Amino acid sequence: MTIDMHSHWRPPALIEALRERAETPRIVTAEGGAEVLRMRHGDMAMGEAFDDLDMRLADMDEHGVSTAALSLFGLYQWIERLPAEQSLPLVQIYNDSVGEICGAHPGRFVAFASLPLADLDAAVAEFDRAMGLPGMIGAQIPGNGFLDYASAEQYRPLLAAANRHRAMLFVHWGPRPGDKWPRVSEDADNMNARLFTLDMQASLSANMVTFSCTDILDDYPDAAVMIHNLGGNIPFEVERLDHRSMIDTPDEPIPSSLFNKPNVFVDCNSLGARAIEIGVAAYGAEKIFYGTDGTGFGCDWTNRALAEARIDDGEHRAILHDNAAGFIARHAELAPHRAAA
Fold first, then answer.
1. CA separation for the pair 44, 94 (Å, rounded)
2. Long-range contacts of the stretch 182-187 (C-beta < 8 A, 24+)
3. Residue 326, burial from CB neighbour count under 10 angstroms (0-12, 13-18, 19+)
4. CA–CA distance from 338 to each of 39, 181, 277 (Å)?
5. Digit-coded pLDDT (tens) for 49-69
6. If you average pLDDT over residues 108-120, what whole number do you get?
């Protein structure tokens, strides 16, 4: 009875379109005959884990995942940051492809749309169009757009669109069009740890403060926001935030009282049992979704973490299924319970 709200995907039709591009990002045959995704900063080897539907369904069945919310995979999100005339046809390929998957497998899949972010008018128009496709529940947007209030103000048109559709914005770590990226030098020591954990978690923490500790969502009560990886480090740092608040701004509400907005959620992707426990303590289990990145490894990791977490059966069930089911019911049907094979 599990709903995976953080399940990345790259449709074969998008891969084919990237093979036809003459400039980065593009898919080329590298020395030795293997295909790679070529980007400004280098090449990434191709694999089947994120584009083989039969493999994905088998992984879901093996791990008891009834429904997965598809979102554009990792570095392929660069298509969202291209000039709008290049970005729009590519994101439409993605959106139409996942809409077809949702329509062909009702209840097994829902999806977050991809948007041409270099042109917000075009992004809103594509958001509106995509929400008419089968299984769409919202859109994926870059965390860099919400690092602080001033940045978030620029994305009010997308917040308004989400509010209009009663949809969810999946805030995923990553740059906006034109942002310097990566923030960590490629020749830094421990580059992967510094970029994919330290930078990512700090960015997500900033997103959580923006959405929870400012009024940016006040005008959009019917929009929902999901931030991955437990909303960064907030559960670990909330006592420090309260301590500083009592010293620096004693007349303002303490931060721990603000991380309970009804339309702000997190997922527990890539975190462990102890982290989930303090996440439940900081936010409440009703604010946390199950997430895996969309791999068998991710399912194993999250299932084990939840099994070991010292939370009660109701909290466990809420994270696995009930929280996501309550939101998805706005837009799509759900598959019946599927026990793990």
1. 19
2. 182/41, 186/41
3. exposed
4. 39, 40, 26
5. 688 999 999 999 999 999 999
6. 98
Residue 40 has pLDDT above 80, yes or no: no
- The amino acid present at 126, given as its one-letter code, is E
Tens digit of pLDDT for each residue in 279-334?
Answer: 999 999 999 999 999 999 999 999 999 999 999 999 999 999 999 999 999 998 88
Q: Which amino acid is at 18?
A: L
Closest CA to 23 of 6, 40, 43: 40
Tokens of 233: 């480090």
Q: In this structure, what DSSP letter does residue 77 have?
A: G
| Virtual torsion, Cα 245, 250, 253, 254, nearest 10 deg | 30
CB 252 within 8 A of CB 292: no
Say how many CA atoms lie within 13 Å of 227 toward its Cβ: 30
Query: Under 8 Å CB-to-CB from 246, ≥6 apart: which residues?
Result: 254
For residue 101, give both structure tokens.
Answer: 């998957």
- Please, are residues 294 and 50 in contact by the beta-carbon 8 Å criterion? yes
Tokens of 278: 């303090």
CA separation for the pair 302, 234 (Å, rounded)? 19
The pLDDT of residue 341 is above 50: no
3-state secondary structure of 63: coil
Residues 61-106: pLDDT tens digits? 999 999 999 999 988 999 999 999 999 999 999 999 999 999 999 9
Exposed / middle / buried, residue 150 (Cβ in 10 Å: 0-12, 13-18, 19+): exposed
Residue written as tokens 């969810």? 168
pLDDT surpasses 80 at 32: no
For residue 159, CA distances in Å to 57, 128, 129, 338 come to 32, 12, 16, 34
| Confidence at 339, pLDDT banded by 50, 70, 90 | low
R_g (Cα) of the chain, nearest Å: 19
Segments of 216-298 assigned E as strands:
224-227, 264-267, 288-289
Which among 145, 275, 164, 276 has a CA at the least distance from the CA of 210? 145
Tokens of 251: 């007349």
